[in-house]
Request: fold
Amino acid sequence: MRLSSSFLPTLKEDPAEAQIISHRLMLRTGMVRQMSSGIYAWLPLGLRVLDNISRIVREEQNAINAQEVLMPTLQSADLWKRSGRYDAYGPEMLRIVDRHKRDLLYGPTNEEMITDIFGQFIKSYKELPQLLYQIQWKFRDEIRPRFGVMRGREFYMKDGYSFDLNYEDAVVTYHKMMLSYLRTFQRIGVKAIPMLADTGPIGGDLSHEFIILAPTGESGIYFDSDFTEQNWLEMPVDTNDKESLAAFFQRMTRFYAATDEKHDQNEWQKVPESRRCEGRGIEVGQIFYFGTKYTEAMNVSVIGPDSDKINPHMGSYGIGVSRLVGAIIESSHDDQGIIWPDTIAPFKAVIINLGLKNQACKDACEALYKMDQEQLLYDDRDERAGVKFADADLMGHPWQIIIGPRGIGNNVVEIKRRETGERTEVSIEQVMNYISSYQG
Ligand code: 5CA
Reply:
């Protein structure tokens, strides 16, 4: 994308409405714009990040054979009356009446709808397990929307739902999803730590929250620092083998990790002092096992091996995709601006042309830009070098490729790594190679 003709409306001043750094940086870089309280429009730069996160989430869900669906945002109130949650959910649910006076609602979550869909099609235990997910907008009429996209009213969520024949099988699915989440967050470039959690309005008796460390987080957290040393992508777990999954789960739960709600001082004392980490964190995902809560209430069953009727055991699995955008910035920025992890950055690199009037510079920039127009942002604006550098740091592209009259005479360009500030000179032919083979 050429910066001179793109829709990247950056702000010069800090917006007054933003209390935390991620919100400030998202507004300053023109990623989002608030349209009503807690409701945001995603502009090109922000949407690219949202799409990149969604892509990784999708790949890791598909890798454990979860199947993607897309359910409507509007749901019939009748569904929620069947589960008993229509009255129980309270004022967070946005209730709507259509022209025929039928009660609808903007879905805050989809346990009822997916259970209904499942019940319409799946009739035998032989068709279990089933694992379905979607990435879709949700609405919760939060009393105090704040911190930008982190606690919005309309927000983007990956929500997954599982159906198993019994408790033992449902636990295998829970373990599988746990591993898939750890891999997802590692690929996204954040350290998310699973912590035992309360189940709230979703219900059930087994749940983990995934928490990213950030000083502005809403929960106090305690964890064993050895957890963050684990490489989940290289862990040899066979997701089709329940013993292998159970062994992984046992290994994982060896590390102490708890939010202040579940913190246990006795257990905490058993962690070696040098490994005790305390701080604050942001919840970017949560998984639940809640058994037959919805299948029983909504009278959904399958025929079991002995021709008896069985209510399948369910779990649900959420990732706050839009919240993650803010949470990543909270945990990855400096005084100059955002520092995007490579895998979800809106652009791989920015090309900074310091010699707009110099034909050799222009030619070099154009040639480079043509190599990957989708992933490169070309700063071809008629602006001072200082402005271009500041904007590049602010927007947080992992790489800056700086092309100026002096270097280009010797066929070299300067490359700056945003994360470390490290600078290298390479020949113009080597730039893309250097970037794609960089190993931290
Ligand atoms: N049905 C379950 C799992 S699919 C569920 O709704 N879980 S949840 O309530 O924990 O939400 C899943 C994730 O959505 C949370 O972990 C959080 O990251 C995100 N989320 C929840 N509320 C908001 C909000 N108001 N703004 C932004 N993200 C939110």
